[in-house]
Amino acid sequence: xxxxxxxxxxxxxxxxxxxxxxxxxxxxxxxxxxxxxxxxxxxxxxxxxxxxxxxxxxxxxxxxxxxxxxxxxxxxxxxxxxxxxxxxxxxxxxxxxxxxxxxxxxxxxxxxxxxxxxxxxxxxxxxxxxxxxxxx
Length: 136
Description:
Elements lengths: L13 H8 L10 H16 L3 E4 L9 E4 L4 E8 L9 H12 L6 E8 L2 E8 L2 E5 L5
Parallel strand pairs: 3-4
Antiparallel strand pairs: 1-2, 2-3, 4-5, 5-6
């Protein structure tokens, strides 16, 4: 996967630049349960001081892009009833490759909603690491 021109050019705000790269729309094509989980993730980010936008498109790697004054987060959000992150090993592998290539100007996380709680993972060059506690 090759991404060119990722970093904003002088004079262009980051939010405007993101809209230029991705088409951000409503939740069309997303089932009701997935939408509810995304809205919950957005609320969690907002409580922690982040502003976020949803990313649309069938081939997206991220569901949310969030930022505060200190950092950017690129977040994939999934829901499962009883399996952990191993169910998503292919997706984690794709995200890890972005980290190895140093393409993104922020952290990449994988959030799984299971058993009425969030399990957040930091994506690293070699896989995923479970995050404990609140936002760091």
